[in-house]
Structures are given as structure tokens and as C-alpha cells.
Amino acid sequence: MKLTDEWFTAVAENDSGQTVIIAGRSGIDNFKESGKFNDRIEITWKYEGGAMPDETTARQMEEACDALKKAVEKNKLAILTGVYTGGGKRIWVFYARHNGAFGETLNSTLSSFPLLPISIYAEKDPLWDEYAEIAAMQSPDDEE
């Protein structure tokens, strides 16, 4: 299975009516269909100041996400499938082979960063229901 780095974007509103920018990964059906990535892990970083993070916070978020993505995708332990930004928080959604191994990799990868204001949620999602919701937002133009 080859993992590409192709993404689409969509705009939605949260329950409070605030704009949320969604980045969804495309071209990953083979990972979904493999049946090996059944644990959905959501990492949430809350931030101050309104709809979008300030420049410094956004840069810190990108650095942390890039490091974690590289670490978990290197051996296909997990795949980053979506990123939601808006309404005072950024959420990264990963599908993982094993949630415990993901947690160990997350801790070792982020240990070089200052303490980050993140929370982690995990649940079984073998049908990739969350991913199906964002994939449905992909416009036909993005599928080319």
C-alpha cells in the first residue's frame, strides 16, 4: 500500500455557527479497506483568540503535527486522515493499527516539544465513519 500526501479542503460550520476549515486526505481507500487501521485517534489543541489560531500558535501546531505525522506514517502505524481548524481548536484525526503503540510514539515524538495544550480521544472505528463524513465533502473537482 502506497501512502500519498494528497489533500482536499472544505469549509463547514460547528454547532456554534463558527467557520471550520477541513483538510481531508484523499487516495487512502486501500488503507481503509485493509481492515488494519481500526482505531480512530483524535488530538485536540484548543487555542485562544477567535476563529483561527494566531501565527505563532499555527506554526507550533504545524511543527508538532509534521513531527507526529512523520513518526507514525514512517512504518504505517497510523495515517493522518483529517485536520479541522476553527472555533478555537484544531483537531487532527488519525486512524491507527494499535492505539497503545500510537500513544507511545506520540509521547516519544512530542517529548522534544514544550508541554503542548492537547487532549487525546480514541475509539474503535473499523468502518471509518468519521472519515466518510469528511470524504463526502470532497468536491468532484478535488477527485481528479
Briefly say what this structure is.
With 144 residues, this protein is an alpha+beta fold. It has helices at 29-33, 55-74, 99-110, 129-135; strands at 6-13, 19-26, 39-46, 78-86, 89-96, 118-124.
**SSE string, helix = H, strand = E?**
EEHEHEEHEH
* Number of DSSP helical runs: 4
| CATH-assigned fold name | Aldehyde Oxidoreductase, domain 3
Structural class: alpha+beta
User: Strand portion, in percent?
Assistant: 25-35%
Total strand segments: 6
Rounded to the nearest angstrom, the distance between the terminal CA atoms is: 20 Å
CATH arch. level architecture: Alpha-Beta Complex
Q: Strands of the largest sheet, in order across it?
A: 1-2-4-5-3-6
Number of domains: 1
**Rg calc:** 15 Å
What gross morphology would you assign? globular
Question: What would the average pLDDT be, to the nearest integer?
Answer: 93
Tell me roughly what share of residues is in helical segments. 25-40%
Q: Could you name the CATH class?
A: Alpha Beta
Uncertain stretches of 5 or more adjacent residues: none
Biggest sheet overview: 6 strands, antiparallel
